[in-house]
Amino acid sequence: MRSLPTILPMSTGAKSMLLATFYFAIMNIFIKAVSHLPAIEIVFFRCGVSLLICFYQLKKEQLDWKGTNRKLLLLRGVLGTIALYTYFITISKMPLGTAVIIQYLSPIFTTILAIFILKEYVKPIQWLFFIISFAGVFLMKEFDERIELTYLLIGLFSAITSAFVYITIRSLKEKEHPLIVVFHFQLIGTLSGMVFSVPVFEMPAGIEWLYLLIIGIFTQLGQLNMTRALQQDRVANVSIINYTGVIYAIAAGFLLFGEHYGWGTLAGIGLVLAGVVMSMIIK
Asked: Residue 151 in contact with residue 193, Cβ under 8 Å?
């Protein structure tokens, strides 16, 4: 186990992931505010705004948006869009804090996948902490009637898909500029959202247009910092930092959306966080 002084100093990748988590927390708040709109429509606006910002940044940096590893970039875009769509569904159907904590199981899936795909090492004791985290999810389901099994499974699917996204980004390390990686995700997300939102499209009203713009802006900030983080450090190290977003989500849900949690649900959330934190410390 590492001593406290060796835990406190933060790498560049960790700092980038902390920023990404904060930006995504802002994004989540405004997604919840417009969650009555179809999830695929929110995907379209979210990715569309970010696409325009990213295209401007690419031109400013004089980068070729096509990239060189097009198969991996395509895979990142497709997987990212699927993960995003399913995540938005859970936000619309669950309390914000619950949806976020389920999505944040992705670092555990990422760590497990990294063993087989990236050949990264995980200590045996960490598996115990993973089990503790999943036990927490079980408690949340048992004590919160608002968590339906269907949407819990959709949330878990989103978390697993996000894990594959993290692995793909890591595989693009030193091969593609972070802006190019983000651009392909936004491009595929925009095109997919445009096509599939046509049958279910609902016109946003009034201030909702501003909310959608804010979602796109903070998405871009979050995506760029997340991509940098995953390219600057080990996947297992930086992806776990995502869990700081749970604090933002629970606070925002309580203060802005009147969401309350029973002791059983809070105990489940506590187990999830405890499992992840212990896994991080024991490395």
From this structure: no
Residue 232's nearest CA partner among 161, 181, 158 is: 181
- Rounded to whole angstroms, the Cα distance separating 87 from 73 reads 21
Q: Do the beta carbons of residue 40 and residue 196 sit within 8 Å?
A: yes
Give the C-alpha distances (Å, rounded to integers) separating 86 from 13, 89, 126, 171, 243.
27, 5, 28, 24, 19
User: Which amino acid, residue 242?
Assistant: N
Query: In this predicted model, what pLDDT tens digit does every residue of 82-125 receive, in sequence order?
Result: 999 999 999 999 999 999 989 878 878 888 888 888 777 888 89
Give start and end residues of each alpha helix (H) in the chain: 4-7, 12-33, 39-61, 70-93, 96-103, 106-117, 125-143, 149-171, 178-197, 208-232, 235-239, 244-257, 263-281
Asked if the structure places residue 127 within a domain, the reply is yes
**Does some domain include residue 1?**
no
Q: How many domains are contained in the chain?
A: 1
In 3D, which of 94, 79, 46, 219 has the Cα closest to residue 160? 79
- Residue at 3 is within a domain: no
pTM for this entry: 0.86
